[in-house]
Specification:
15 helices; alpha/beta; TIM Barrel; 2 domains
């Protein structure tokens, strides 16, 4: 029988100052002023509308993503946090993360977010290099990014993630590694370091920039991994590196096929229903104006994950973890026996892409490099 996994909450704030040319998230350039209070009211209606999916669990984590959640006031963020606490409740030591843009960083606002209950800040730096930031369409420069890191630390954020991209247009190996060095030296406890990819429905997709060649990308990754390891960072997921005890608990719940409510315009959720013997995904309407009109009016739309889809749905997340995934978790989180994927597992073992023992599945170093190909075997 399916077991109920930990429950998280994702809150989507859809506005940003300017849409970046690489961004394919549901984000919208903000009008001035944007309807902050009306949107917060809609978020709380949306939360209450999803309460039947909670099934007596308390929240393991909350993540405010976007868009740029730090555009909202600390009062608004606190209102959502308190509503979640009142209507669902919190596990001990709940992790509450908020994404922030260095271009809109303010010390007092950061301090107020901390006082409101946010205990982990994620700064969308992407690079400390002015030329690369300009090419990415960011609204901040390198000095803004450094100042934002210092402001966050002075405001009381001991848990600080810095988002960085590599493989940028005209980026050299030295420039990519310099970005990592600055983040490390400035005291980041977590670094999300990922390669720029060109996604459909973005400005870059319409006019692609010239990206570094494959051999340079491979060199950047190898040198970067070594630098992070030397600095005491553990690569616990494909693009996530943390100091001891600083892994993002919210994202680990995603990767371990945990449950999460998604509230806000375009937010997605994934919920286990043991008595119906099914797992469902939910999705909210994408346009903020539509969301604010419709929030709380109807039960959330649910789409069951079919038995054929379950293996890839589980493994596309779980195999991103460098430590591997427990075999029992596959059974408990999907309701399927391990025999269901035995043929693919044997083939991948023979090709040196996957290792397995009595307790877990884990991709090899080679398998991690070609993870998309590994996952295609289960689709």
């Amino acid at each position: 029988m399916l077991e109920l996994p930990p429950l998280s909450l994702y809150v989507h704030i859809p506005w940003c100052v300017r849409k970046c040319p690489y961004c394919d998230f549901n984000s919208h350039e903000s009008s001035d002023p944007f309807p902050e209070k009306a949107y917060v009211d809609a978020l709380i209606k949306d939360l209450k509308n999803d309460l039947a999916l909670v099934q007596n669990r308390k929240l393991h984590s909350i993540f405010f993503g976007g868009g740029t959640p730090s555009l909202f006031s600390a009062t608004s963020i606190e209102t959502v946090i308190r509503a979640a606490q009142e209507h669902i409740g919190f596990e001990d030591s709940i992790e509450i993360t908020l994404e922030a843009n260095p271009g809109t960083a303010e010390y007092k606002k950061f301090a107020d977010f901390n006082a409101a209950g946010v205990n982990r800040l994620s700064l969308g730096v992407q690079s400390f290099n002015d030329n690369h930031l300009s090419a990415l369409g960011r609204i901040h420069n390198g000095d803004n990014a450094r100042n934002a890191v210092k402001m966050a630390q002075n405001a009381g954020f001991d848990r600080l993630n810095i988002d960085l991209m590599h493989g940028l247009p005209n980026q050299t190996r030295v420039e990519a590694i310099d970005d990592l060095g600055i983040a490390i030296d400035m005291g980041a406890t977590h670094i999300s370091w990922y390669q720029l990819t060109i996604e459909p429905n973005t400005a870059f997709y319409s006019k692609p920039p010239l990206l570094p060649a494959e051999d340079r990308l491979a060199d950047i990754q190898d040198i970067g991994y070594e630098k992070l390891m030397d600095a005491g960072f553990d690569q616990y997921e494909v693009s996530a590196f943390s100091l001891y005890g600083e892994a993002c608990r919210h994202n680990i719940n995603y990767w371990e096929f945990g449950d999460y409510l998604g509230i806000g315009a375009g937010a997605h959720g994934k919920l286990t229903q043991p008595y119906q013997e099914q797992i469902v995904r939910t999705a909210k309407t994408r346009m903020p104006e539509h969301f604010m009109r419709q929030a709380g009016a109807t039960p959330p739309a649910e789409k069951p994950i079919t038995i054929d889809q379950l293996p890839i749905e589980f493994l596309m997340n779980a195999l991103r973890l460098t430590s591997g995934i427990n075999k029992n978790m596959f059974t408990h989180r999907t309701g399927l026996k391990n025999d269901h994927i035995a043929r693919q597992v044997i083939q991948l073992q023979q090709e040196g892409l996957l290792v397995t023992d009595e307790s877990k599945y884990c991709v090899t170093t080679l398998g991690m490099r070609f993870l998309d190909s590994v996952l295609q075997r289960f689709s």
